[in-house]
């Protein structure tokens, strides 16, 4: 049976459009006729909200499967053609509980194994931290996709981010591969252009650096409407970039 490509969308920095990229990339892979599962590993539960669920009303979350309290993942089906394992703020407590759990790094991987042949892609929206939940996500993943804001502070954090991926590969997931780098929140300001050029020079030897996704209020407006950008604004100039990233994931 074919096994899913499990892609962790990861950056330890916040505000780099991880959740936006997860939902929109998932939708474009769905449009390419792939069966999609999105997993919200962030206690802030932005992905759960963007996908149309009220996080505080969700009774079963990814944390239940990680802790072994439920044998099956609680999956919400057919949200814009995608499936979702939700999160809410109680996932923060799960992170604390994991401190005393045996083999905690592999718990998400084990939870996803039973559905590995059902989905073509599993996209994991990681929290903006280097904590246990991110490590679980990277351990479960076959690939990591890295969104990086074209901003000096975000660029300076790249070394730490790559070091974390290297440590995960060394100690718990030797097959983890970098699926690509997605520059985000790009504007035509001179600093953005300089940072984009630096990102391309530094990271191109490691992985494909995709065309930068522009800073656009349409992404926030679409999220507020609980819709992927391609539904909310089908002719938006960011759509072809998202299509290219989706096709890049097909080629992994």
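^ Assign residues to that structure.
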């Amino acid at each position: 049976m074919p096994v899913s490509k499990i892609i962790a969308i990861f950056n330890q920095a916040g505000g780099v459009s991880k959740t936006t990229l997860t939902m929109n990339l998932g939708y474009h892979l769905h449009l390419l006729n792939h069966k999609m599962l999105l997993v919200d590993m962030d206690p802030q539960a932005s992905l759960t909200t963007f996908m149309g669920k009220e996080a505080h009303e969700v009774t079963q979350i990814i944390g239940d499967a990680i802790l072994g309290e439920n044998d099956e993942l609680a999956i919400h089906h057919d949200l814009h053609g995608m499936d979702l394992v939700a999160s809410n703020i109680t996932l923060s407590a799960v992170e604390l509980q994991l401190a005393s759990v045996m083999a905690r790094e592999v718990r998400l991987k084990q939870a996803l194994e039973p559905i590995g042949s059902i989905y073509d892609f599993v996209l994991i929206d990681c929290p903006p931290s280097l904590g246990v939940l991110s490590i679980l996500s990277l351990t479960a993943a076959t690939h990591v996709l890295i969104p990086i804001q074209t901003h000096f502070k975000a660029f300076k954090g790249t070394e730490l981010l790559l070091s974390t991926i290297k440590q995960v590969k060394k100690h718990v997931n030797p097959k983890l591969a970098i699926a690509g780098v997605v520059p985000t929140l790009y504007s035509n300001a001179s600093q953005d252009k300089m940072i984009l050029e630096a990102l391309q020079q530094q990271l191109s030897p490691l992985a494909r650096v995709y065309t930068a996704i522009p800073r656009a209020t349409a992404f926030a407006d679409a999220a507020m409407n609980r819709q992927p950008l391609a539904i909310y604004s089908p002719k938006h100039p960011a759509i072809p970039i998202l299509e290219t990233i989706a096709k890049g994931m097909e080629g992994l």
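The chain has twelve helices and seven strands.
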